[in-house]
Amino acid sequence: MTDLKLKLDSTLLLSPSETMVGCLKTHPVNYSLPQPFYTDQHCFDVEMKQIFQKEWLFVGLTCEIPAKGNYISQQIGSNPIMIVRGDQGQVRAFHNVCRHRGSKLCQAKQGKVAKLVCPYHQWTYELDGTLLYAGGEMGSDFDKSKFGLHPINCKTAGGYIYVSLSDNPINIDAYFDDLARYLEPYDLDNAKVAVENTILEEANWKLVIENNRECYHCDGSHPELLSFMLEWDDTEDPRSSDEFRAQVAAKQALWEAEKIPYEHVSHGHGLRNRIVRMPLKEGAVAMTVDGHAACSKLMGRIKNPDLGSMRILHLPNSWSHAQSDHLVVFQVRPVGPLLTEVTTKWVVRKDAVEGLDYNIDRLTYVWNATNTQDRILAENNQRGVNSMAYQPGPYSETFEFGVINFIDWFSDAMQKNIAAEKYCG
After folding, report:
1. How far is CA 75 from each of CA 96, 104, 209, 343, rounded to the nearest angstrom?
2. Does residue 5 lie in a domain region?
3. Do 144 and 79 share a structural domain?
4. Residue 229 and residue 214: Cα distance in Å, rounded?
5. Residues 138, 192 within the same domain
6. CA-angle at 255, arms to 253 and 256, nearest 5°
């Protein structure tokens, strides 16, 4: 730990990325990371470049941009981006940066426009990014076709939107194919975000993900969540009981009859992308305080109110719980080495009426409470990691295998991305 810190602080030794690779090569994935990985600005900057500028990131839902000209904008590190619905319904992503002098184009988080107009000098772009108008005298040799918006790789799957800032992103099409198949029953193009909530956690983004990847802490911290949710999501989990396996088999027979996908599928190193449907506790059909449905209108083509929770994980920045009547979708956005933004969206049918078909407080109560509890846990974790007494500690292979999978993926992705950059450079 000390050696890594000294190297990161020294301009005479290896670069931060080379130092991190050297550390990760020898660091056991069943131990928490050395302190600088959770606290150091150099490490954070390398991770933003090697992970958040290269991997596929979840950024939103197609139902948030339902019509031509609808857009959402976000910030990925120092990079403002926007996702826009085009003339023919295409979903495209661009760097939210004018090609004139670099001003940010779309200022609002969400909106609708006829054209994309820079507020600085009114350079105007079509929804496909082509430059239509450049004010002033630009000279006779000015070629508008060379000054379109810089595009970003963008893909949709089942109503989820992903982007990659890399010019040559890794291929995860198998995951996108499975995601589209598993989300098909929900018809998310005809859904809406009923509520959105963003909290700022004073903790490193990896501590936020680690906390999500285990339920070792749930029994002592999440009474609302455990009133309906089982801690494990796999019949092979050594903690699962015969009763649980019988419950899963009975529910799967019903799901099979309705052609609702449920099998556990995973893709990529360290289970970076995984989908599985698991029942909730017997008698519970939704993640509400009493286990009853939060919305009277079920999603899409779903008829059976008891679909349990379809759990979707996408590293590095998202997880979801899809139930028969609504979805809860989470997005993580690193802001600094000690600061992380977590956004939660509750999604219902587009034609569901607030106050009639669903109640906001009832819909959000459990996960608002759980998010607050998780924020406190992550921030306390960060305070301890900041201490001179912190040393990497062992993860439980029984209770924290999900954390081990995450650290394994993080280590592998960092090493591969840095190595590829050096090779191409």
Report:
1. 9, 11, 19, 13
2. no
3. yes
4. 13
5. no
6. 65
Task: Specify whether 88 is located in the same domain as 185.
Answer: no
Counting every residue written for the chain, the total comes to 425
How many whole angstroms separate alpha carbon 281 and alpha carbon 129? 49
Domain contains 112: yes
Task: Report d(CA 155, CA 227) in Å as an integer.
Answer: 36
Environment class of 31 (CB within 10 Å of its CB; exposed 0-12, middle 13-18, buried 19+): middle
**Three-class SS string for 35-75?**
CHHHHCHHHHHHHHHHHHCCCCEEEEEHHHCCCCCEEEEEE
User: How would you classify residue 298: left for phi > 0, otherwise alpha for psi between -120 and 50, otherwise beta?
Assistant: beta
Residues 334, 350: contact at Cβ < 8 Å? no
Q: Which long-range contacts (CB under 8 A, 24 or more apart) does 174-181 make?
A: 174/267, 175/267, 175/268, 175/273, 175/314, 178/265, 178/267, 178/275, 179/273, 179/275, 179/312, 181/261
Check pLDDT > 50 for residue 256: yes
- Residue 286 maps to which CATH number? 3.90.380.10
pLDDT at 236 over 80: no
Distance CA 312, CA 303 (A): 21
Q: What is the pLDDT of residue 10?
A: 43
Q: Are residues 118 and 226 in the same domain?
A: no
pLDDT at residue 237, rounded to an integer: 73
Given a cut of 60, is residue 132 above it in pLDDT?
yes
Confidence at residue 423, expressed as pLDDT on a 0 to 100 scale? 55
Which of 317, 248, 313, 254 is closest to 55 using CA atoms? 317
* pLDDT tens string 43-77: 999 999 999 999 999 999 999 999 999 999 999 99
Higher-pLDDT residue of 193, 3: 193
At which residue do the structure tokens 């893709």 appear?
267
Whether pTM > 0.85 for this model: the answer is yes
Residue 165's CB is within 10 A of a number of other CB atoms, namely: 20
Confidence bin at 138 (pLDDT 50/70/90): confident
Q: What is the per-residue pLDDT across 15-30, written as a single tens digit (0 to 9) for each?
A: 889 999 999 999 999 9
Q: What is the pLDDT of residue 137?
A: 72
Is pLDDT at 12 greater than 50 in this prediction? no
Q: Please check whether residues 156 and 219 belong to one and the same domain.
A: no
Contact by Cβ (8 Å): 222, 373: yes
Residue 410 lies in a domain: no
Q: Is the pLDDT of residue 392 over 60?
A: yes
Quick one: which H or E segment has residue 80?
strand 79-85
Structural domain range at position 107: 57-164
Same domain (yes/no): 197, 299: yes
